[in-house]
Amino acid sequence: MSNKRGYSLLIKESEKLNMPQYYRSDLLFHDKHILANTPTSLAFGWIVRTCGTHYISRTQTPDGWGVSEIKFFGTYADARCFWYDGQHLREVTQPELMDLALAYYNNRKAAHIAEGRSPAMAARMASEDCEKQHTHDLAGAFPMPDLPRDWKPN
Hints:
By secondary structure, the chain is of the alpha+beta class. Helices cover 49% and strands 14% of the residues. It has a domain at 4-101. The chain has five helices and four strands. Helix 1 (4-17) runs antiparallel to helix 2 (25-36) and helix 4 crosses helix 5. The radius of gyration is 17 Å and the shape is globular.
């Protein structure tokens, strides 16, 4: 399981734009590590700017971290937003990236409403669905060290 194609497209776009100029470890370490442990066909969003990159999972919730990043970093004058559909990387606007990142959530919410659940219950269940799918999508992307049960940070 590795998304070398997605990562190579990020590298190519990064070189073309000459970004990021600072915090290149976002691209060269963090994005690489995430994509090394995700399936090739998995869609994702990506924001690149002079001072770093931001990987956006396809399973965002309206109050999720990725949505916050899109709202915040996507408005920077130098920010460029992209969507990888499992085959191609294309530049999108900030509102388009928001819509694409929330599509899974919105589809799940609509399915729960169609099953007769209230909008509030459907929203909660859609958030749970996103969390489960996100955990499944990124399984292994962030390996946790084996620590003794009684371990505590200093």
